[in-house]
Amino acid sequence: MSLKTVVRQQSQTPAQQLQLQQQRDIENGLYPNIPAERRSPPPRPQRQDTIDMEEIPLNRSTSQPEPEDRRRMRDIFNHHDADRDGRINTHELKQLISNGYCQDIPAYIADQILKRADDDNSGALDFEEFYQMSLRQQLMFRNLLALYCRAVVPPPTPRGDEPDGAYERQMSVCPPPLTMVIFSIIEIIMFLVDVIHFQDDPDHNQRLGESTNGPAATLFIYNPYKRYEAWRFGSYMFVHVGIMHLMMNLIIQIFLGIALELVHHWWRVALVYLAGVLAGSMGTSLTSPRIFLAGASGGVYALITAHIATIIMNYSEMEYAIIQLLAFLIFCFTDLGTSIYRHLTDQHDQIGYVAHLSGAIAGLLVGIGVLRNLQVRRWERILWWISVIFYFALMTTGIIVHIFVPDYFPKPEYN
């Protein structure tokens, strides 16, 4: 530094010296806390300083045009970002899908699509998440989602009945539907125990499995004179009188039970079935206190009306729901009419129709209460509460009568 430069610095004011020092710092690459408009651009790095930077992905220059697919996705994104917040929420995604000729997609499906693509769990999609979703789900964005929506939700039919199919798509074989199969196997084993027991008895050769004096029947049948053995209110379902009685119950309960179990899983179907069995014995005991009871008809009728319950609660999500509902209603009323006719015309008719009716009522009420409802509506919540309260009121009343009004029933036999 020359003498002339030193003299010049000494003649400057402190403010001028500070400004001169800041200018030197800027030239040397140091950036003090000064306004951005007073800063000079940093010196351009030499080639040797950028060798390692080649491995770092750099943002594309704004002057370089976007690829065609990305530009198209940005146009779709901007068009359906109704509130212009730079994000697509569930409502906007549903509108986007609806514009792809999928007019009736349920809101929960749009919500599931959004959740799968929402990488940062913010509840909405920014453009990058939206674009990555388009890359993963190319079928979804082909022709503005038309093909994807048709695969997810069938298009409406011109006849007015709009099959949705969301209910049927809930079917799963994991876990396998074995509940009714297991119950059926136990019923077959109990039947065979009695058949084998009487195989050498000439008095029973012509009436295969019709005796109620076998070891299984004696232990499990509902006996009104042994009501203190409380297990009989449920175990009578393992006892069947005759091969036709057994076969009819097995066919119906396996056919209907597996169809329910594929959607609602084993424990719900088991609850419905057992509720029907218990209601059957309870209703029979209250209306006909001296009637013996055998067979799983209470549980079978519970499965029948459980199908009606799930149609009611999932009507909008089912394919051809009206046809299914009519089929079950016709079956129920036909069987009820036939039962009444046989009861009035055949004095030897010993079928416990009260158990059928009680099981059917229990299946409807418990089915509404425990079976899956894919899209809960306000009136369905009200119906759920009515069904649950009504079922527990009926069962509680029956239990109270059995405990506190013993004189209504036949005197117990303890032999």
From TrEMBL:
The chain crosses the membrane at residues 178-198, 237-259, 266-285, 291-313, 320-341, 353-371, 383-405. SMART domains: EFh (SM00054). One of its GO terms (molecular function) is serine-type endopeptidase activity. Pfam families: EF-hand_7, Rhomboid. It is a multi-pass membrane protein. GO terms for cellular component: membrane. Residues 36-50 have a biased composition (Basic and acidic residues). Residues 9-23 have a biased composition (Low complexity). Residues 68-103 form the EF-hand domain. InterPro entries: EF-hand-dom_pair, EF_Hand_1_Ca_BS, EF_hand_dom, Peptidase_S54_rhomboid_dom, Peptidase_S54_rhomboid_met, Rhomboid-like_sf, Rhomboid_IM_Serine_Proteases. Residues 1-70 are annotated as: Disordered. The active site is at residues 297, 356. Its main location: membrane. Belongs to the peptidase S54 family. This is Protein rhomboid. It comes from Drosophila lebanonensis (Fruit fly).
